[in-house]
Amino acid sequence: MGFNVAIDGPAGAGKSTIAKLVAKELGFIYVDTGAMYRAIALYLLNKGIALDDQEGFAKYCKEADVTIKYIDGIQVVMLNGENVNAFIRTEAVGNMASASSANPEVRNRLLSLQRNLAEEFDVVMDGRDIGTNILPNAQVKIFLTASADVRAKRRYDELTAKGEECDYEKIKADIIERDERDSNRAVAPLKQADDAHFIDSSDMTIEEVKNAIIAFCR
Ligand code: DC
C-alpha cells in the first residue's frame, strides 16, 4: 500500500486546490475522484438520462469506461478512451454527478479504480467517502469544510473571474442542496471518518490549510 492521504468534504470546501498543493509538496499523485463521477455523469447526460432515473444510471453507467492518466502531473480523465477534462466542470455535470453518484452501481464502477491507485502509488485522494469507505486504512484523513456562505462566495468569484454570469443566491442554494444530497444518501454518504482531522477553512488561507495538512503527514 502506498502512503495514502484522504481528503473528504462538501462541494466548494477547497479540497482539490488544497489536495493538489499537498500532493505537490509531498511528491505524491493527486487523485480527484469527483472528476471520475463527473465523467460518468457526462456520459449519462449525453445519453439523455434524467436526474432521477435510477434504472438509467444503473444501466448506462456500465457503458462508461473511466480511467485516468497523468500528463505533466495533471490528472486527465478518460471516458471510453476520450479525454473529457474540458467537459466535466459545468454546473449541469456537477448536478448530474451529485445525483448519479448516489446510485450503488455507479459507485461500484469506480471503487476498484480508486483503490488500485492508492495501493500502487503514494496518493492524496479527495472526494466524499475516501476516508470512510474507499481507503479506511489511509495513514492521514482530513475532513475539510467551510461555511456555505464562504463556499458560495468562492464559487461565485471563480465563475465571475472566468467571465461567466452567475447569481450568488442561486449558487448558495445549489451548494446547500448538493450538501443535503451528498450527506443523506444511503450509500457512502459524505461523513467525517472517526479518525479524520477536522479543518474548517472558512477563515484560513490556502497556505494555512496546506501547512496544517502537511503537519499531519510528517
Ligand atoms: O467534488 P466534485 O464536485 O467534483 O464531485 C461531484 C459529485 O460527485 C459530488 O456532488 C458528489 C460526487 N462524489 C462522490 O459521491 N464521491 C466522491 N468520492 C467524489 C464525488
Shape call: globular
Order of helices and strands: EHEHHEEEHHEHEHHEH
According to DSSP, the number of beta strands is 8
Q: Helix- and strand-based class?
A: alpha/beta
Alpha-carbon Rg, integer: 16 Å
- How confident is the prediction overall: mean pLDDT? 95
Low-confidence stretches: none
Amino- and carboxy-terminal Cα gap: 18 Å
Helix content: 40-55%
Question: Compounds present?
Answer: 2'-deoxycytidine-5'-monophosphate
Query: Tally the helices: what do you get?
Result: 9
Q: Biggest sheet, open or closed, and with what strands and sense?
A: 5 strands, parallel
What percentage of the residues does DSSP assign to strands (E)? 15-25%
Give me the secondary-structure topology.
Layout: E1 4-8, H1 15-26, E2 29-32, H2 33-46, H3 54-60, E3 66-71, E4 74-79, E5 82-83, H4 91-100, H5 104-120, E6 123-127, H6 130-134, E7 140-145, H7 148-161, H8 168-184, E8 197-200, H9 206-217
Parallel strand pairs: 1-6, 1-7, 2-6, 7-8
Antiparallel strand pairs: 3-4, 4-5
Helix pairs in contact: 1-9, 2-4, 2-5, 7-8
The protein binds 2'-deoxycytidine-5'-monophosphate (DC).
Describe what this molecule looks like in 3D:
The protein is α/β, with parallel strands linked by helices and 218 residues long. It is 50% helix and 17% strand. The strands form two sheets. Strands 2-6-1-7-8 form a five-stranded parallel β-sheet, sandwiched between helices. The mean pLDDT is 95. It binds 2'-deoxycytidine-5'-monophosphate.
Features of the shown structure:
218 residues, five-stranded parallel sheet, 9 helices, binds 2'-deoxycytidine-5'-monophosphate, globular, three-stranded antiparallel sheet, 8 strands, alpha/beta
